[in-house]
Amino acid sequence: MEHEADIAVVGGGFGGALMAMVARRLGSSVVLIERGRHPRFAIGESSTPLANLFLQQIAEEYDLPQLLPLRRWGEWQREHPEIGCGLKRGFSFFHHTLGQAFSDDEQRRNQLLVAASPRDEVADTHWFRADFDHYLVQEAQRIGVDYFDQTELASFDEEPDGVTLGGQRNGEPVRFRAGFVIDATGPRGWLYRTLGLARRELPLSPATSGLFAHFKNVGAWPSAPGEPYPVEAAAVHHVFDGGWVWVLKFNNGITSAGVAATSERAAKLGLPEGEPGWQRLLAKLPSLAEQFAGAEPVGEFVFAPELSFASGQISGERWAMLPSSAGFVDPLLSTGFPLTLLGIQRLGKLLVGGIDRADYERQTNGELDQVARLVGALYASMGDFEQFAALAQLYFAAVSYSETAHRLAKPELAGSFLLCDHPEFGTATRDICESVLRLAKRDEVLAKIRAVIEPFNVAGLAEPAKRNWYSVASDDLFASAAKLDSSEAAVREMLLREKLL
Ligand SMILES: Cc1cc2nc3c(=O)[nH]c(=O)nc-3n(C[C@H](O)[C@H](O)[C@H](O)COP(=O)(O)OP(=O)(O)OC[C@H]3O[C@@H](n4cnc5c(N)ncnc54)[C@H](O)[C@@H]3O)c2cc1C
Fold first, then answer.
1. Residue of the nearest CA to atom 48 in ligand 1?
2. 274 CA distance to ligand 1 centroid (A)?
3. 361, 310 contact by CB (below 8 A)
4. Looking at the 3D structure of the chain, how many domains does it have?
5. N or C: less crowded end of the chain, CB within 10 Å?
6. Cα angle at 292 between 286 and 297, to 5 degrees?
């Protein structure tokens, strides 16, 4: 069988499906080629305010209104109760000492709770990827994308007038002719392997491994009076020296949980063994062991020996990788979705000649590198939670500033993820992260962070009086309007329009 299309997207996860929809809306004929079959398990589940904003921008720019309910908990529950979803009101971090029960003092030195939304209706979500990705692929088909699942590609031949992809579908040979190919198969994916590309080193990023599964019957993490949001309605991170555990609860009784740890810590815990490794980890985290006392895995444990990765080349004359195929950094800061969605927006522009390959490569690699630096500095601080929490404020300051700038229609203030292209913020973040790896004095690091985030701090971050609990307070935004070249009235109007007030 031979199929022809303007664009071939390889990899039918959420990234590939959305990319195919965008290309279709640009008027191209599109084939979407997936090795597996939906619904299927996929990891990478926790969304963020910025990711949801990018999803909304894609929906609005490319006339894809069917995506809009998926950007917020309330609309999602009303319009798509059949798509599994988790309520995410914020980011919760708890710091553990291995071998001891979790404990904290009055200053809450062992926790950091940062609210991302003021109430459930407008909250972020965890995407139950089996349902979510399946829905998107069906929607892609509905607008005219030709979808080929269970298709294993074996060859990529680039000619002056197009590309031929060859492979097998259900045991039969199949060929696709396309003008341009987009690889959405994930890190170390199809084009990286097929073209035999070199690997690129990510700055400061430690080699980390992951072990994860879905569970049922997971207990509750204790809540505390006055917390800024129900503490479990969040991406919950349990940090310890050399690694961290995530716990994400869905509305279908399933909980996603896993651990990412330096290779050294992973080897010591025996994580490559799967479930026995997970049980050994829990034995060292007694409070978490209590929460998981009655838990049962649903499906297999997955061990990922090496999480971080970057490809040395990410585009060619007739092909490009999504950011999620171009590279990956340990998921500590949930950066996969926003980077993927930014990449989809940029590739949409590239397809119509709005940006060129060099722009795409520079932005994609630059953002990945900045995430790697910050995650590297955070890993180096996992034994010192005061420094860890301060470094995390670089992330929260950059994303809350960027989100507000975009919502105020001032995208020029925040043109790159984590403001990495910003001459002051981007450079200072790089310097701070490098200084952490050089073991700079903690007081100096904290002072630098405070100074760097101040002009971008629109969310009342880094205030000692808040003792590591940050709610969403519109007064913080009003007071910071000038930092966004804006006025209190304009911020109020934006918050009302977005139903955030
Ligand atoms: C442990 C872990 C936790 C994460 N947590 C988060 C998080 O909380 N938040 C966040 O934002 N990001 C997270 N990420 C990142 C997130 O998973 C990715 O950003 C996201 O999955 C990218 O989506 P995608 O559709 O581009 O790729 P994928 O989800 O990787 O999908 C790739 C698709 O391509 C298909 N495929 C693979 N090879 C081929 C082939 N040869 N031919 C055809 N099809 C092929 C696969 O079957 C799959 O359907 C996490 C990642 C990991 C590893």
1. 13
2. 20
3. no
4. 3
5. N
6. 140
